[in-house]
């Protein structure tokens, strides 16, 4: 749900959360993010990779909690 998505995104460090939102919800390119945040394009992509990794980890934990509750 949108609420769960917002909660998970808010659990990221603020800088990674903002990069992720701007890239995947607002359509910014890596180059645009790099310029806005004073990063190189590869630095912006690396930060987005960290954000995705953290989100995957959090989603696995959340999924595990939901699986345990449904049994």
Key structural traits:
single chain, 71 residues, mainly alpha, 82% helix
How would you sum up the major sheet? none
Structural class: mainly alpha
Give the overall shape: elongated
Approximately how much beta-strand content do the residues carry?
A: under 5%
The termini sit apart by: 21 Å
Order of helices and strands: HHHH
User: What is the alpha-carbon Rg in Å?
Assistant: 14 Å
Percent of residues in helices? over 70%
Overall residue-averaged pLDDT value = 87
* Tally of helical runs: 4
Give a count of the beta strands, DSSP E runs of length 2 or more: 0
Detail the poorly predicted runs: none
Give the helices and strands, then pairings.
Elements: H1 2-10, H2 14-24, H3 30-37, H4 41-70
Helix pairs in contact: 2-4, 3-4
Short characterization:
Helix content is about 80%, strand content about 0%.
How would you portray this structure in words?
The chain is mainly α. Helices cover 82% and strands 0% of the residues. It contains 4 helices and no strands. The chain has helices spanning 2-10, 14-24, 30-37, 41-70. The two termini are 21 Å apart.
């Amino acid at each position: 749900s949108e609420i769960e998505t917002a909660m998970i995104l808010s659990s990221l460090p603020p800088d990674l959360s903002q990069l992720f939102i701007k890239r995947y919800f607002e359509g910014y390119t890596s180059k645009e993010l790099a310029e806005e945040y004073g990063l190189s394009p590869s630095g912006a992509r690396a930060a987005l990779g960290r954000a995705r990794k953290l989100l995957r980890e959090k989603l696995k934990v959340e999924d595990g909690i939901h699986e345990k509750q449904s049994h």
